[in-house]
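In response to the reviewer comment on reproducibility (Comment 2.3), we provide here a single inverse folding case reported in full, input and output, so that an independent group could reproduce the run without further information from us. The structure tokens appear first.
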């Protein structure tokens, strides 16, 4: 049961603007048309008993507990399914109703274990509450009749139990799986007395289609579906609202605690990004935060071939400061730099870039957004004027045509995917542009109208062809363009697009997508009342990532699909705070708020506030840092919460660069792959140990609240302050709220943001939030683009430099899976491994047959950069000529084979296109054997008590 504020209105809120007035128990009530009688009563404090109704689900009307009497109507209608009508006179409490309700409860209770005192939901059970409310004192039928009390529990899911003996068959779980999650994994099997909840075809939960989102657990009014942590630990004693630290959806959760231990994470119904929903990661996979692999003591060593030495915080910081000073004295001011993490808070990111600019004295700061959404920042800035998505998630509920390009939200942004699927079930059309047949193409009750199954690397060609159809068939919006955009840029772009090379027929030859499908999809998008484009890393992680982003913005402007709800250009940001880390000035050329370091007015403002002199030259990007390290000019790195060895392309180049450096400082919660090349390890804190903010893909700044003290004794921001101070640049913040105040004072789009303001506005604010928009900005570019007039820019297609040939005839593309997250450092330390315990290589049956590869065979994958070995998964999800893998396990070496090819504008790596050859093999690759030896050695270098030999799967 998931009710945050304790009030469950029974049925969802009506969105009608027409009001009706009626009388309930003698009280005049006025509610929006379409409100149920149950909700109308509850809104005025009159609670009608209920069991099958809950306000997160549509009314179902099965339990018959909520009956009422309506003047002039026969019988006793269910208040949950009866809409309130003007003039109705309703009684919710009469002797007859009391009789009926007691009778209903008697039937339920006669088939329910009477073990309330030992039940995990004792005190938090709606059945128990309703028995009390209806005044049940006796069960006339006794307890000895036919019943379900001996049914076995299904404990197969690692996170929750299904205890069929407690099920009252209210159907709430089934509806939650359908309406909230959209997976349709549950049904009520059997009829009458025999009816029971069934997962898929009467399978155990773990074997079924269930994706473990927990929506059914939240909806269950009894202890039938209960979190195992609640069964083991009992219910929480206190709670705090915080924000998920996994993906860019930014779901709000109530962390229920016992002392300093989390009992469960309950999705917040008032959370504006998730509206009470969650996915398996945020809902259940938080055990990593207390995993025994956590590193809790600072450590230093002079060489990576030395064992670690545990030291005090002071010694670690002083050692780092002296090393950085030594390196700068020897190699120059620009020989060190820092990396901001998109997993850390805005406040932490801001401090790291400030440390680099003010204390290191250069602009050598970059962030992991470099390797995911840096093309979004560039492409949207130059066309629309702001480096961010244009909408709220809720906006999709007003879209008529949804275009998903290079994104798999069902796996990477699951809670938003559920919302998008809800809209599609309501009738919105769907166009998917993806080399793979993802869950967005076909899943229960979702079927894409068009799936443009293009060859990886041809996004720009497809986007141009869509534009070609729109312009050649005059489906664009000339009035919008004339009023809102630079008309000269449009004319130039129109001329460029209408060249024959951009026609669907020409692009069919490049992309493999039939011209007619391109035409039909373009017409569908352009003719939509509201057409919205959502895109992900399948757009950005290409040599022409920025070009595709620009092309998408061109499409939206040409069709007038921008500047209102239901439309827009919507990058699905990867990590929890990738938007925020970019906003905070983590790129080497930009100060907070995307202001260029070369701008003297901006610099003067920061110099005055920070009391320092800023370098006007942009610093090094991550790949330039590696190159400079190999050249012997970049020798020191402070890396907070990022695992570049596993996440960046061309692993062998990265590790060679790190081996060339003299002082690498890693601040993290685990001894990650990068830490194995480090000289200083500073223990980090998990999101449960932090105060601060994350900014999600909708520009929503949400509070992150500390629910337990930092396990290593210091918050990440405190450590950055210590390092700055030790370097001679004192930082003396007392609380992250002071850091946000400083951010607000220096960043025009954040002027109105403070922890207090966020709390006042219900926990989150969408930037820009300033005098012009004191409550934030849900939809951007209304009336006018941030840059004034929207700018069309030509997007010429160039084939990827990663060419297929006889030696490397296949294209490897990479992506994510629902249960694991990125480098897997967190999810691999949870029971999520039950769903995905290794990265596999998806191969089309024809390609497998040609090479004699069978399901589960070991397959060697060679690229121009390197070689690794994975097991084969033969599937038609990929097309012939394309292979696919995830990259969640370090030993997979997925990035050993990705190359240094990158986006022309931002250096975002081209993870999505690598030319490879594959063949059956019988042993790991040379790289994997070397990795295993190195890994074993590095783990032995940490002291026994700090690194357990085996990392157990957390609860
Ligand atoms: S956990 Fe989610 S997917 Fe699984 S059965 Fe429950 S609602 Fe459906
Ligand atoms: S499992 Fe819970 S929600 Fe589902 S039918 Fe049974 S009691 Fe209702
Ligand atoms: S959708 Fe993203 S933010 Fe929400 S619970 Fe899942 S991982 Fe966390
Ligand atoms: S609550 Fe209305 S019928 Fe169950």
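Designed residues, in position order:
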């Amino acid at each position: 049961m998931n009710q945050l504020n304790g009030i469950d209105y029974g049925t969802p809120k009506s969105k009608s603007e027409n009001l009706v007035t009626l009388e309930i128990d003698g009280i005049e009530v006025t509610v929006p048309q379409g409100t149920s009688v149950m909700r109308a009563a509850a809104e005025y404090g009159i609670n009608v008993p209920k069991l099958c109704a809950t306000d997160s689900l549509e009314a179902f009307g099965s339990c018959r507990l909520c009956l009422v009497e309506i003047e002039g109507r026969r019988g006793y209608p269910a208040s949950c399914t009866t809409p309130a009508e003007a003039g109705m006179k309703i009684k919710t409490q009469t002797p007859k109703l009391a009789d009926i309700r007691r009778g209903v409860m008697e039937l339920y209770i006669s088939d329910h274990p009477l073990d309330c005192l030992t039940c995990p939901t004792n005190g938090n059970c709606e059945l128990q509450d309703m028995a009390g409310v209806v005044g049940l004192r006796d069960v006339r039928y006794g307890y000895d009749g036919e019943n379900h009390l001996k049914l076995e529990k299904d404990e197969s899911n690692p996170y929750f139990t299904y205890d069929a003996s407690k099920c009252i068959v209210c159907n709430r779980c089934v509806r939650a799986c359908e309406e909230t999650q959209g997976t349709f994994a549950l049904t009520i099997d059997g009829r009458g007395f025999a009816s029971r909840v069934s997962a898929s075809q009467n399978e155990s939960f773990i074997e079924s289609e269930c994706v473990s989102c927990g929506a059914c657990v939240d909806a269950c009014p009894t202890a039938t579906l209960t979190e195992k942590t609640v069964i083991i630990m009992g219910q929480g004693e206190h709670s705090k609202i915080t924000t998920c630290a996994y993906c860019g959806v930014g779901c709000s959760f109530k962390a229920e605690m016992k002392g300093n231990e989390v009992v469960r994470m309950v999705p917040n119904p008032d959370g504006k990004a998730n509206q009470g929903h969650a996915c398996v990661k945020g809902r259940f996979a938080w055990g990593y935060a207390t995993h025994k692999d956590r590193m809790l003591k600072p450590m230093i060593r002079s060489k990576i071939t030395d064992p670690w030495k545990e030291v005090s915080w002071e010694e670690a910081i002083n050692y780092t400061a002296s090393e950085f000073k030594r390196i700068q004295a020897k190699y120059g001011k620009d020989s060190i730099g820092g990396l901001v993490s998109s997993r850390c808070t805005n406040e932490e990111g801001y401090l790291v870039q400030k440390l680099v600019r003010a204390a290191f004295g250069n602009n050598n700061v970059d962030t992991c957004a470099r390797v995911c959404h840096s093309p979004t920042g560039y492409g949207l800035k130059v066309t629309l004027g702001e480096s961010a998505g244009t909408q709220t998630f809720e906006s999709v509920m007003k879209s008529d045509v949804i275009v998903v390009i290079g994104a798999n939200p069902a796996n990477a942004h699951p809670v938003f995917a559920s919302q998008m699927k809800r809209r599609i079930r309501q009738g919105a059309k769907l166009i998917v542009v993806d080399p793979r047949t993802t869950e967005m193409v076909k899943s229960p009750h979702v079927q894409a109208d068009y799936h443009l199954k293009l060859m990886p690397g041809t996004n720009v060609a497809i986007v141009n062809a869509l534009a070609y159809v729109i312009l050649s068939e005059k489906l664009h919006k000339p009035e919008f363009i004339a009023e809102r955009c630079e008309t000269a840029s449009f004319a130039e772009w129109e001329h460029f697009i209408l060249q024959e090379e951009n026609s669907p027929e020409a692009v069919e030859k490049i992309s493999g997508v039939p011209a007619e499908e391109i035409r039909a999809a373009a017409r569908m998008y352009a003719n939509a009342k509201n057409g919205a484009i959502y895109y992900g890393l399948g757009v950005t992680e290409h040599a022409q990532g920025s070009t595709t982003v620009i092309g998408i913005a061109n499409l939206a402007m040409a069709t007038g699909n921008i500047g209102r709800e239901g439309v827009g250009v919507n990058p699905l940001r990867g990590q929890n705070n990738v938007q925020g880390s970019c906003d905070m000035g983590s790129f080497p050329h930009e100060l907070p708020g995307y202001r260029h370091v070369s701008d003297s007015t901006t610099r003067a403002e920061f110099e005055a506030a920070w009391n320092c002199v800023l370098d006007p030259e942009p610093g090094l990007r991550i790949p330039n840092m590696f190159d400079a390290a190999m050249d012997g000019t970049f020798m020191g790195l402070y890396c907070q919460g990022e695992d570049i060895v596993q996440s960046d392309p061309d692993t062998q180049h990265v590790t060679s660069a790190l081996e060339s450096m003299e002082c690498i400082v890693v601040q993290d919660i685990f001894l990650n792959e990068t830490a194995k090349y480090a000289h200083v390890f500073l223990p980090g804190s998990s999101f449960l140990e932090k105060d601060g903010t994350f900014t999600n893909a909708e520009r929503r700044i949400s509070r992150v609240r500390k629910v337990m003290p930092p396990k290593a004794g210091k918050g990440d921001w405190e450590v950055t302050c210590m390092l700055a101070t030790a370097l001679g640049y004192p930082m003396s913040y007392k609380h992250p709220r002071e850091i946000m105040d400083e951010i607000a004072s220096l960043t025009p789009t954040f002027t109105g943001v403070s922890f207090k303001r966020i709390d006042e506005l219900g926990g989150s604010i969408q930037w820009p939030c300033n005098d012009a928009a004191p409550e934030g900005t849900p939809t951007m570019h209304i009336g006018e683009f941030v840059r004034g007039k929207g700018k069309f820019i030509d997007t010429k297609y160039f084939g990827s430099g990663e060419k297929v040939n006889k030696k490397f005839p296949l294209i490897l593309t990479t992506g994510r899976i629902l249960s694991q997250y990125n480098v897997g450092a967190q999810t691999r330390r949870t029971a999520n491994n039950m769903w995905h315990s290794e990265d596999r290589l998806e191969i089309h049956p024809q390609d497998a047959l040609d090479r004699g590869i069978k399901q589960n065979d070991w397959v060697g994958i060679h690229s121009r950069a390197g070689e690794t070995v994975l097991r084969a998964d033969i599937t038609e999800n990929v097309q012939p000529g394309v292979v696919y893998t995830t990259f969640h396990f370090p030993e997979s070496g997925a990035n050993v084979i990705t190359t240094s090819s990158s986006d022309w504008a931002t250096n975002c790596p081209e993870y999505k296109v690598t030319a490879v050859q594959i063949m059956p093999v019988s042993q790991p690759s040379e790289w994997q054997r070397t990795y295993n030896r190195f890994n074993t050695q590095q783990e032995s270098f940490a002291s026994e008590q700090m690194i357990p030999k085996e990392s157990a799967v957390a609860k």
